[in-house]
């Protein structure tokens, strides 16, 4: 199997489709909503969680069987039914339209995999086995979650604010790069690993002042 090219997609405002109405489909819907996607679900029946989202206007629910007309204007599709024949039909018709499509539990029939993702605010660490072992990816993600606490997310936001200030005040790109590269050294990472966020920030401030 050829290698995969890892990317992060901007889905805000994009129309995404989930085919299926069970608990797996619900998890996929939640992950898309977390990226501010506009989500449509197609299924004759949906689980209570999806029904509540539809009632609250968070998603559009097309109550019925899948038909390729629902693909019009869609950017990304996830096939998450419990019927292999339906999932593969969805995949086939998406691929014919050059749409992004993932088939849950049957990755080779889509054109992208969904990695296991550990999130700490804007910090995201994705783990993928290229569809070979989602369980292994999930276990590694859980290990990463124990290793990287919430302080990493807060630190990433703070560094982003510093980067914005540097972009606004330093026109020389090489100088900016040198400063940014000096801010996160081994000592800063060690302090974060020990949960000493305040001290990590203080060290960065020292680097800036020098």
TrEMBL record:
The keyword Oxidoreductase applies. GO terms for molecular function: ferrochelatase activity; precorrin-2 dehydrogenase activity. One of its GO terms (biological process) is siroheme biosynthetic process. Its EC number is 1.3.1.76. The keyword Glycoprotein does not apply. It catalyses: precorrin-2 + NAD(+) = sirohydrochlorin + NADH + 2 H(+). Residues 120-146 form the Siroheme synthase central domain. Keywords: NAD, Oxidoreductase, Porphyrin biosynthesis. Pathway: Porphyrin-containing compound metabolism; siroheme biosynthesis; sirohydrochlorin from precorrin-2: step 1/1. PANTHER family: SIROHEME BIOSYNTHESIS PROTEIN MET8. This is precorrin-2 dehydrogenase.
């Amino acid at each position: 199997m050829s290698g995969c090219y890892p990317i992060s997609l901007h889905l805000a405002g994009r129309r995404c489709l989930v085919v299926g109405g069970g608990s797996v489909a619900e998890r996929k819907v939640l992950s898309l909503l977390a990226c501010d996607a506009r989500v449509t679900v197609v299924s004759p029946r949906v689980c209570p969680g999806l029904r509540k989202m539809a009632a609250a206007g968070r998603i559009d629910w097309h109550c019925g069987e899948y038909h390729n007309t629902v693909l019009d204007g869609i950017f990304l599709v996830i096939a998450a039914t419990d019927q292999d024949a339906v999932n593969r039909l969805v995949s086939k018709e998406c691929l014919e339209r050059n749409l992004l499509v993932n088939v849950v539990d049957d990755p080779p029939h889509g054109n992208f995999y969904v990695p296991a993702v550990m999130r700490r605010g804007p910090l995201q660490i994705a783990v993928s086995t290229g569809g070979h072992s989602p369980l292994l990816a999930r276990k590694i993600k859980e290990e990463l979650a124990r290793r990287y606490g919430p302080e990493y997310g807060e630190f990433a936001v703070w560094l982003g604010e510093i980067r914005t200030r540097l972009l606004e005040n330093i026109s020389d790109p090489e100088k900016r790069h040198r400063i940014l590269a000096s801010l996160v050294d081994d000592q800063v990472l060690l302090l974060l690993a020990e949960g000493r966020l305040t001290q990590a920030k203080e060290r960065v401030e020292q680097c800036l002042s020098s």
